Amino acid sequence: MAKLKVAILGATGTVGQRFIQLLDGHPWFEVAALTGSERTAGQTYAEASRWVLDTPMPAAVRDMRIMSEDAALDTPLVFSALPSKTAGVIEARLATAGHIVCSNASDYRMDADVPLLIPEVNPEHLEMIAVQRKQRGWSGAIVTNPNCTATAPTMVLRPLLNAFGVEKVLLVSMQALSGAGYPGVPSYDATENVIPYIGGEEPKVEEEPQKMLGDLVDGRVVPANFTISAHCNRVPVLEGHLVCLSIGLQRKASLEEVLAALSNFRALPQELQLPSAPPQAIVLREEPDRPQPRRDRMTGAGMAAVVGRVRPCALLDYKLVTLGHNTIRGAAGGSILNAELMYAQGMLQS
Amino acid sequence: MAKLKVAILGATGTVGQRFIQLLDGHPWFEVAALTGSERTAGQTYAEASRWVLDTPMPAAVRDMRIMSEDAALDTPLVFSALPSKTAGVIEARLATAGHIVCSNASDYRMDADVPLLIPEVNPEHLEMIAVQRKQRGWSGAIVTNPNCTATAPTMVLRPLLNAFGVEKVLLVSMQALSGAGYPGVPSYDATENVIPYIGGEEPKVEEEPQKMLGDLVDGRVVPANFTISAHCNRVPVLEGHLVCLSIGLQRKASLEEVLAALSNFRALPQELQLPSAPPQAIVLREEPDRPQPRRDRMTGAGMAAVVGRVRPCALLDYKLVTLGHNTIRGAAGGSILNAELMYAQGMLQS
Amino acid sequence: MAKLKVAILGATGTVGQRFIQLLDGHPWFEVAALTGSERTAGQTYAEASRWVLDTPMPAAVRDMRIMSEDAALDTPLVFSALPSKTAGVIEARLATAGHIVCSNASDYRMDADVPLLIPEVNPEHLEMIAVQRKQRGWSGAIVTNPNCTATAPTMVLRPLLNAFGVEKVLLVSMQALSGAGYPGVPSYDATENVIPYIGGEEPKVEEEPQKMLGDLVDGRVVPANFTISAHCNRVPVLEGHLVCLSIGLQRKASLEEVLAALSNFRALPQELQLPSAPPQAIVLREEPDRPQPRRDRMTGAGMAAVVGRVRPCALLDYKLVTLGHNTIRGAAGGSILNAELMYAQGMLQS
Amino acid sequence: MAKLKVAILGATGTVGQRFIQLLDGHPWFEVAALTGSERTAGQTYAEASRWVLDTPMPAAVRDMRIMSEDAALDTPLVFSALPSKTAGVIEARLATAGHIVCSNASDYRMDADVPLLIPEVNPEHLEMIAVQRKQRGWSGAIVTNPNCTATAPTMVLRPLLNAFGVEKVLLVSMQALSGAGYPGVPSYDATENVIPYIGGEEPKVEEEPQKMLGDLVDGRVVPANFTISAHCNRVPVLEGHLVCLSIGLQRKASLEEVLAALSNFRALPQELQLPSAPPQAIVLREEPDRPQPRRDRMTGAGMAAVVGRVRPCALLDYKLVTLGHNTIRGAAGGSILNAELMYAQGMLQS
């Protein structure tokens, strides 16, 4: 069967590069168009991009020509690695023109009619597309994936909320350098240092999870009713956001029940065997000193949420540590998995 | 006036090296004896120690002979950089023999009759020495300084507790490599990584602050009545423990009141102009991205507690970030300041 | 066909772990025995080893019992990850008892009757085994692979020596932390630093290449007739030894000829399609800033020698930079490729 | 006596910041003017600069207003931290107008009538100013300091050339991140990596030392007659360029003679007791593993050339390692010492 042709918006940046890397050899999707700024339009991808990933640039894209971001695309599915703000207008135009846009940008994430999707967490939120189309008159649609820091904690909260309810979350992140893009954080700042601040990050982390964990009522999300307080820090790690969580539950739960909820978690992408779905959405580590970003970020090919150090908290109920690969599951891989879910559910056709 | 002769126990380790570095040229104290393991006894300090600090080994100690840790000392003041467990017996023997032992080890910290001292926080706890002597029949005494991670947060909590009361503290540390001593953390573990676990650290951080912030009633400490929950992490930073705190207060306080309490804090060591006291015990940074370990750890010659990012917390009342130099204020420098306070108060004579 | 059963000596260390990682799923060899110190003998591998690699411990070895290093082995092929000195006696005993020992240790490397082997460089040196057996009365044999730093430069020198002769080599290494084993270099030394010294390394790098590049005359190696001067440095990189070389040739050669010699290099392991042979033994990079350790060390699954920045040298003839993965091609992978060559040539039978 | 008023061109960049840091409290010079780009002109220094050094911004400059780089200055002495190319026109205009410009830029370094000065190496080259003024009709002058990587090796070569002559130098650098300015090298490139290339660096390192070590004949420099071949690498170190050198001498010299030449070196800045001169220009380390960038870069307050690992070279005569602080001695500090020499010799008046 012919593969579905896809475009990548903002293909030369670091998230764009991850899309290209992850889509290389994809069983369902085939990269057919790449867009970039006016400056790079017309160049080959090899000329236009400064490839920074640690695997070689896939041969299939080397000689593809970069299109302007305003070019008309003829691919049914579009992955957007555009920066916030730039994304808004371009993605809307494509959705108007009938494209399904799986976007990593933050512009539409919190809009009431736009799914903020993690297939293991809230696959039913795709129903919001009907509302979106009706309200906006679009024949296409925009589906977003969350902030890279919010992703793994939200996955880990899913079974806890299901089983025990969640009331409070105190969250402290230690985020990787790649989260700032390229060139991103200067090495003169990052070396042998921690920067206890990431502009604009804490508000996203404090509000996106509740939307994803919310119930869909009449096509609208009722956000999950708990409060998050976040401290976000940048640490000298290349990839992988480590997050310390203290969690207050609604109902009492023993440590065994909590561990069981985490390790027994099963979800739709695994059931559907989506190509990018990790074998286990949540991987529970039992060693006292795991997960570690460098050693565990590639769990499930970078698509799993890894959790460890689950233990009682003297203030709330439980403490634990999560790890997610920020540019795979937390960015490009998350968008791709969203598209795979839509494809598997017949919402995309070639 | 002749300087007071002091000994350093465990002088060849990293904390011992810091004692030597910080006591070089000290106006009141003069290093007169160094102890080490049986293996190094008899060697010169230059032979026995693998000097790892970034300033040169002081000339005054190069040719001093290492004494066995069991040797009789004739210095009234003894600084202990011994590892926990080793410290217990040796320090007790010295206190019995009339020495004042300022110890960085954890063995006696939580004993009911042993001061756990930060001169800016609880100078009056030195009164416990009378109880200690009476109960143990010692002519000397043991005075301890807290865990390196607990130090800066406790200093910052002092004015908050004074002004508003403290009810709850959620604490997440990002601790420097030097905290593990030498050789300490293998570079193969620490490079481009975070280790979300430090053996034995969280319990100390969760109980030492309340003792220091407690009131002295009839010679005994009534611990401050609040709960701490700690997550401790190791990050690839050489020196300086950065700590994210969420703090619940007993009484409502505006952000301005909190900032004022922090920046107006005055304490005894500054009033007494103790030689190692930083000009300001608490230094408040107003930039959004400070304190940073590498850039701010030497504030007040490594003796200040730096605090920044003070802002409301959605769960508790306020969030902030503290930084303290772990091997200066959090170890050797803390012990020296304790001794300076005792000296200034006439508790030590040459 | 049944796989050949192999043992790994010193299986719990970092090189031992690489052997286990690389042999997992090997098409010809199957790990059947693991040895360790007296202390770990009898434990399972999961109990005995502190696994430090970034991929999970293979399931096949988790429950294997560690044997004492003095145990009698019944595997025809033995891989040795023993430290130098320990290796000497144990490897000799196994060779006496009829085992083929592919050793990563340095003890026998420079012995006149022991092959120091890189299959792309000097496969014919395996003929030395006949001499070895005759002289030592062994029914087995010892075959060694070179020092990790010497490996990639020697591979790159092979075609240059063939085509133009080599007269002089000035070599400056920037070596990865993993080369020091585990725990190896303390993070307190390695962070934000370079250590311009590695004990015992420079002599090995200065004499091993000439043996490998030498001609075999009557079963004995006549070392290649050129001089190497080496400076060895440790840099804060996890894996991958980067080496700057200035090379004086015997015959004039144009830059084009040099580049052609490097990129046209073909060798026996590729011809024989040995399982661990990289598609190309030497990979030539043309970008001005490659190879880089982190980005290029996994070229050819960590088995290729990567070379770049080939340009004229004002003092000797050409300058270039080589990169080799020090614990794959430079250690365990090198030994395995040596065994594969012997297997393919019928020198090993199950 | 009133201090000499000085201006700093390009004051907001990293080299500009070093000038400000090093001139704070200077006994002879007082910062009276700061220039920056059109964009920052009119702002206070605190507003205009993103201070990146690890010591606080000196209070004296916080509220100074940035002048446009085209502004007329009324300070007799001007320090230039301008980038190459920008520097050319501006520095010439200031020299025409009678200012002494001590420049860190590369534009004029190799001009036949411009001193390329290290006060310990070639103080007599200041005589070239007479030629410069005559040829260019300037009433002021431009005096340059060398490339940061060339500085320490040139200082170390001075006594060797004096005593034994120098014929050949093979040089491999491991350069700090700060050498690339700010933001400079992205952390995503620099972390756990080495970049074996620095644009434009090798030619400078290969030709500047000979000019500095050349003799002045009739007001013109006859470059020292030896060849340098350089490999330049970027390593994840914040400050301090480490350089491996292999040196061929003109006359035979024993190791003792070489060590004596290095340790007995005395030079004019030390004799004149220039404020920024290190106590010893060349500091010889005898430990096998020194100098190390992090531990030794502050030798002589960052103004000394540190040398170690002096040993025979199998190819040339001797091998050794040098270290110099690249943004102190190799940039701002070097310029300041040049100005101090001119001041001490009466070439500058307030």
From TrEMBL, chains A, B, C, D:
It comes from Oscillochloris trichoides DG-6. GO terms for molecular function: aspartate-semialdehyde dehydrogenase activity; NAD binding; NADP binding; protein dimerization activity. Keywords: Amino-acid biosynthesis, Methionine biosynthesis, NADP, Oxidoreductase, Threonine biosynthesis. It holds the Pfam family Semialdhyde_dh. The active site is at C148, H241. NCBIfam families: asd_EA, PRK08664.1. Gene3D superfamilies: Dihydrodipicolinate Reductase, domain 2, NAD(P)-binding Rossmann-like Domain. Residues 5-129 form the Semialdehyde dehydrogenase NAD-binding domain. This is Aspartate-semialdehyde dehydrogenase.
